[in-house]
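agent> step 3/5: call structure_predict on target 'Asp23/Gls24 family envelope stress response protein' (Salinithrix halophila).
agent> reason: downstream docking stage needs a structural representation; sequence fetched in step 2, passing through unchanged.
tool.input:
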Amino acid sequence: MTLDVSTNFGQIEVSNDVIAIIAGVAAMDCYGLVGMASRSQLKDGIAELLGRENWSKGIEVKSQDNEMEIDMHIIVGYGTKISEVAHNVQSKVKYTLDQMVGITVQRVNIFVQGVRLVNEE
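tool.output (status=ok):
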């Protein structure tokens, strides 16, 4: 599914994968976020930390009835307040998508898949 934007110069189609990548880059700019986790189930109770090239695998973009909803599976840093990190990610993703693509996101759902030490690899 794509987002269609019509301008005076023509039609623009933005795929959900591009929206997911923009959301992932915006989220990684937030303090306390270690990385994205896979949307698939946990392996042996340990969330898989995704590399930069796979951030979109931890993000699901849903569009229905002209409303956009984003589900993000994240891993936060140990010692940070989880609710603050989640709120910052929600705000940053909404703002960035509004500024870069011109779309209004209704909801950004955060699923915390794990907690890691910042220096842990």
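agent> step 4/5: record observation. The mean pLDDT is 84.
agent> proceeding.
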